[in-house]
Amino acid sequence: MTGFSVSVVIPVHNAADHLEECLASVAAQTIGFDRIEVVAVNDGSTDASGDLLDAWAARHPNVRVFHQPNSGAPGGPRNRAIDAATGEFLFFADPDDHLGPEAFERMLAAAERNGSDVVLGRIRGVGRSAPRVAFARNVERGDIHTTDVVWSLTAHKLVRRSLAVDNGLRFAEGVRLAEEQPFVVPAYFLARAVSVVADYDCYHLVEREGFGHLTKQVPEPEPFYAAVRAALETVVAHTGPGARRNRLLQRWARLEILNKFGPRYAHWPAGTRERYARAAGELLREFIPREVTDALPPLVRQRARMLSLGGVEELTALSRHEDLDWAEPGRVSWLPDGRRFTVDVLSGLYLKEDPEGVRHRITLRQRDGHEVAVPAGLAAATGSPLVRRLTVDPSALHPAVFCPGAWQLVVRAESADGRHHDVPVRFPNGYVPAEAGTRRLLVRGTRPMVVRLHHNPADGAVLTAAHGRDVAGAVRRRFRGRP
């Protein structure tokens, strides 16, 4: 065993405003600062970061500082620090974050109890998101298959230094996101045991105003997906085809491959969108089997389908709409029989739900708010993930309107949890074919009703219902010339 229990690796670039807090949290660890080595690499900072590090090194012999020209990403500085470190374990911190006082005490205790080569301490997001699934429970001895650690691939972990050195584990260099994966993923597979400390906030991942977090930036797709490819190749090399491999691959399918095509994607330059789609599509086709994408939520499945077909325009359209809660009527067309029409419903609901799980109803609504809902048939796919087509037969609505008055015709799309969108039916140019608009006499028991479908400029499609005897009386009065 070396003299230091932990070597804390910190890549530093223009972090002078926050670096002091980070270093102070390391010095305040309950195991004692004398058991800790700090290896900081000043990556071409143009602020006071380098001077601050040198001041700490002058006061503390266990703080070692290296200065180098800017490399553009944290992977290179971390690799240099790994080569210089002497502690039994490595811990990777970022200069704008800080540790809980008992972090190393708890993580080292878990490693000692279990002979663990990798220990994850719970990460707490401060003003930003942090991984949760991996920290749902404490784990004494586990591995990548028996735990959820695959859902936490950031560098902020305790790793036995000999595991990294003996296996040549290194971070990807020049990559601004996912640079940890070529290091962390092999470490999970090679570790004798992986432990999780889930009952203490070991690491605080902090949102800093004005600080350029790499997670908010759009990385160049080629180096980014090269790092992801290295991780996927590791998964394939260490697992055979089947459920165990698919469980792991689902993480990359969702987060690294398909998650990039969310609401922000539509705002990227056209060239960037095309490059992302090309690089991500290659990984999807090469590494992710169909059974993995089939098990994903409906919206993510749509992205996978479009990516596999190279549909950049469709991906862009999907991206523009998926963060909106909206619905609107599309094309309304009469069928050749002149008695039925179709309504194309455009709705964000179809992006959030399995379309087959969305119920459709025809809602008849009077001006006083009274409604009658009539179940409708299944909506048909139209080829677009945003649109479903519903066929409406006005004659099927008649039994529901044995109440006089004008009923507005509305299509209601309703999700399983009760959320719904109401879409008024509006005929193109207000045109209602003559046969569809003729009066029909209906009888329920002894109550005759006359109904007619027409178009109102304010309400769209309207079904008007009147008592048969009232209609007959009006006809008789007309023939008699009386009002």
Describe the protein in words.
By secondary structure, the chain is an alpha+beta fold. The protein has helices at 16-27, 49-59, 75-84, 103-114, 161-166, 181-190, 221-238, 243-258, 270-287, 290-294, 298-309, 312-321, 349-352, 434-437, 468-480; strands spanning 6-12, 36-43, 63-68, 89-92, 98-99, 118-126, 139-142, 158-160, 194-206, 327-334, 341-347, 359-365, 371-375, 380-381, 387-392, 405-414, 420-424, 440-444, 447-456, 460-467. It is elongated, with a radius of gyration of 32 Å. It contains 15 helices and 20 strands. Strand 16 and strand 17 (420-424) form a beta hairpin. Strands 1, 2, 3, 4, 5, 6, 7, 8 and 9 form a 9-stranded mixed beta sheet that branches. Strands 12, 13, 16, 17, 18, 19 and 20 form a 7-stranded antiparallel beta sheet that branches.
Q: How would you sum up this structure in a few lines?
A:
The protein has helices at about 15-25, 50-60, 75-85, 105-115, 160-165, 180-190, 220-240, 245-260, 270-285, 290-295, 300-310, 310-320, 350, 435, 470-480, and strands at about 5-10, 35-45, 65-70, 90, 100, 120-125, 140, 160, 195-205, 325-335, 340-345, 360-365, 370-375, 380, 385-390, 405-415, 420-425, 440-445, 445-455, 460-465.
List the helices and strands and how they pair.
Elements: E1 6-12, H1 16-27, E2 36-43, H2 49-59, E3 63-68, H3 75-84, E4 89-92, E5 98-99, H4 103-114, E6 118-126, E7 139-142, E8 158-160, H5 161-166, H6 181-190, E9 194-206, H7 221-238, H8 243-258, H9 270-287, H10 290-294, H11 298-309, H12 312-321, E10 327-334, E11 341-347, H13 349-352, E12 359-365, E13 371-375, E14 380-381, E15 387-392, E16 405-414, E17 420-424, H14 434-437, E18 440-444, E19 447-456, E20 460-467, H15 468-480
Helix pairs in contact: 6-7, 7-8, 7-9, 8-9, 9-11
